[in-house]
Structures are given as structure tokens and as C-alpha cells.
Design goal:
Blueprint lengths: L4 E5 L11 H9 L2 E4 L2 H10 L5 E4 L5 H13 L4 E4 L12 H9 L3 E5 L4 H7 L8 E6 L4 H11 L5 E6 L4 H12 L3 E6 L7 E6 H9 L9 E5 L3
Parallel strand pairs: 1-4, 1-5, 2-3, 2-4, 6-7
Antiparallel strand pairs: 7-10, 8-9, 8-10
Helix pairs in contact: 6-7, 7-8
Length: about 230
């Protein structure tokens, strides 16, 4: 019997219309869907009348879930992995699962689609021929500044994910490590109140202080190399 495939399926990052036909077909066809938060994914499934069962998968329950996944794949069943939004594994749960399946010779296949970092880069106006994705920086102030200083010397744009609680702190650290660089702040991408703001760090900090940037939802911060 041929083993099943795990499909890594990208889902919308905001607007539920941003899903590919192939993603919908895949989600309808698999035995079940491994989801970061089943409540969030259920909204998408209802939108497209997808009746496939959802199973909660996070890095924290990987040890318990891996045996169930292997059993289904060994029985020739296909499965799908999704995150709350965007492309799974990219600063989202799923790495451990993909790593273990690949190392054991199982087929893992991508169903490409939305990604917040790429979406932000495409309209940012920063240099995009060379960029470095850093994801979420470490929580340690010292390590964050060390990374900014080290990677800020490279001839690339930097792409960082940040929470609303730490956005102001990140901007201050960029200023202290790299000076008053051009930075793009992206938020609520594809949603009603999406924000793309390209200014110097000092101007962004003033916007936060004056309430012109609403600190809610995750942010993509792009640091221009120039």
C-alpha cells in the first residue's frame, strides 16, 4: 500500500477570499486537517462548505500526535496541515511534524498561497532583490540588539514579525542599533484597515505616541537596507 501525503496548505492571512482553488480542493479531499486553532480554521471551512474533520495540532502536543499522523499516512490516507493564517511552519507550528516526516521518508507537499512577509515586501518600497527573514526576535533585549546590529550590516532588507505589545520596543532597539533607518510597518494585511507605513523610525515612534498606529494584531516590520 502506498503511504499517504501530508499537504502543507497556505490559508488566507486576513481576507477569506485569498485562498486558491487547489487549497480548497485539498482541504475537502484529505482524511482530516491538522490545525493550529480549530476554532479559527472552522471559520474558513464554513465559508467554503468544507466538511473535513479538524484535529488540533501544536508543537506542544507533537509527541502525542505524531503516532496518529503516522498511522493514518501508513494506511494510505492524505492529511493537511494549516496554521491560523498564512503559510504553515513559517514562524508558525508545524516544523517538528514536517521535519520528522521528511526524515522518515514520507511525502510532504506544499499547497502555496498567502504569506504575510512576502505580501508586505511586495508593496513596501524597500529593496526586495535580497532580504533576510528573521521572524520573531528573541525576548532577551541583549540578543535582540545583537541580532539587529549584526544583520543590519548586511546588504539586505530585514523582515521581522512582532506583536503589538513589543512593537514600540522593537522600534527603539532598531534606532539604538541601526540609527534612524527607513522602516515599513505593515498591519492587518488584506483586511479592511490594512496599514502600510514607510517612515523613519523616529516618525513611527511619534505615530505610536500620538495613537496613529493602533497596537493590535501582529505586525510585519521591514527594515530597508538603505
Amino acid at each position: 500500500m502506498n503511504k499517504g501525503t501530508l499537504f502543507v496548505v497556505a490559508t488566507p492571512i486576513g481576507n477569506l477570499g485569498d485562498i486558491t482553488l487547489r487549497a480548497i480542493e485539498t482541504l475537502k479531499s484529505v482524511a482530516f486537517i491538522l490545525a493550529e486553532d480549530t476554532r479559527e480554521t472552522a471559520k474558513l471551512l464554513r465559508k467554503y462548505s468544507i466538511e473535513t474533520s479538524l484535529v488540533s495540532y501544536r508543537d506542544q502536543n507533537h509527541v502525542r500526535m505524531i503516532e496518529k499522523v503516522l498511522e493514518k499516512l501508513d494506511n494510505g490516507l492524505n492529511l493537511a496541515l494549516v496554521s491560523d493564517s498564512g503559510t504553515p511552519v513559517i514562524s508558525d507550528p508545524g516544523f517538528k511534524l514536517v521535519r520528522d516526516l521528511v526524515s522518515r521518508g514520507y511525502t510532504v507537499s506544499p499547497i502555496p498561497g498567502p504569506n504575510a512577509a512576502i505580501a508586505a515586501l511586495s508593496v513596501s518600497g524597500v529593496v526586495t532583490d535580497k532580504f533576510l527573514f528573521l521572524g520573531f526576535l528573541p525576548k532577551s533585549d541583549t540578543k535582540r540588539k545583537e541580532m539587529l546590529t549584526e544583520y543590519g550590516k548586511l546588504d539586505v532588507s530585514l523582515v521581522i514579525y512582532e506583536s503589538p505589545q513589543r512593537l514600540e520596543r522593537l522600534l527603539i532597539e532598531i534606532s539604538e542599533s541601526l540609527g534612524d533607518r527607513n522602516v515599513v510597518i505593515a498591519n492587518d494585511i488584506t483586511k479592511l484597515y490594512e496599514l502600510f507605513s514607510k517612515k523613519n523610525v523616529s516618525e513611527h515612534l511619534m505615530d505610536i505616541k500620538n495613537g496613529r498606529i493602533k497596537l493590535k494584531g501582529e505586525f510585519v516590520v521591514l527594515i530597508d537596507k538603505e
